[in-house]
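Researcher: I'm preparing a figure for a lab meeting and need a structural model of a single chain. I don't have an experimental structure, so a prediction will have to do for now. The sequence is pasted below. Please return the structure as tokens so I can convert it later.
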Amino acid sequence: MRDGSGSDRSAGGDGDDGRSGRRLRLGDLAMQLGVSTATVSLALRNSPLVAAETRERIKEHARKAGYIYNRSAAALRTARSNMVGIAVHDILNPYFAEVFRALEDQLGREQQVVLICNHRDDVSRQRSFVDTLLQHRIDGLVLCASVGTEAEEVNALVDAGIPVTLICRDVTGVRAPVVRGDDFLGGLMLTRHLIGQGHRRIAMVGGRRATSAGRERNLGWKQALGEAGIDAAGQVDIPELMTQADGRDVVPTLLAADPRPSAVFAFNDLVAYGILSALRRHGVEPGPGMALGGYDDTDGADSRLPSLTSVWNAPEVIGARAASLILRQIGGERVTDEHILIPPELRIRESTPPPPPES
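Model: Understood. Here is the structure written out token by token.
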């Protein structure tokens, strides 16, 4: 609770600020030290989330300022908040809307409120969100980790007793449960389908290769090409694209390639939708003129013209399993070694016909 000046009444400590005679708050210490309120609170509780040197600096400053840490108030802060944070890189992607729905349904049945952050693959934004959640005493964190996330920072949360579950993206070395689709297998299945249709020039478009999803879908594409004796190095491979706008913008590059791809594996449905609309504007009919496959099988993929072949990536299953893992941890169970890979399904539709006969 905050008073009229914005200071934190639930800080759990008191002292005289030496100027107005009012009690010193955590927020005052944080301002004086140039750190967050959560960092001060964690340091005073000897949390491993704060580096040892920073911890000692904060504690020394608190002692000199006459701040007394109130352990009774601190005990109140360890009570359940009934809030779970969820952080992903793109809340505008309909795939994550489906994941959220499953998470919210199951967490809601246990009276948990969901707080959502869109970190946009900015690791500093993700860290700020987590810091804010710690201030609000969340019961747990569901994280689709940003590019640049270090295993150590997630493990520090785990070691501090905060329930954490990773979704959709893995981070090597993290000691927290993970629930995601088998991206390698999905990439393999879609590419094998395109090869089976007779395509030999298959572009891969999109995916942040610093993430497990981007890297493994690309590896599945390369493996399928290698099985068919097709050199992946000779194919169009354009990383990093993630949105419909990216898909629209890449079409001139695809059409100018020599030789031009006869098929495209889009990293996700959003990129595929952008490609589909832009191909028509350039006079190329999606499907017959250039086959196109997407990933995630989001709502509406089957009603496009042509309907989009896509890899179903189990959003409801991932959301429900992640919610279950978080609730188990909130209930006191230690869960660190569960790595759940959900098998994908290839859903074949009109957008991936065989290539036209060579002239």
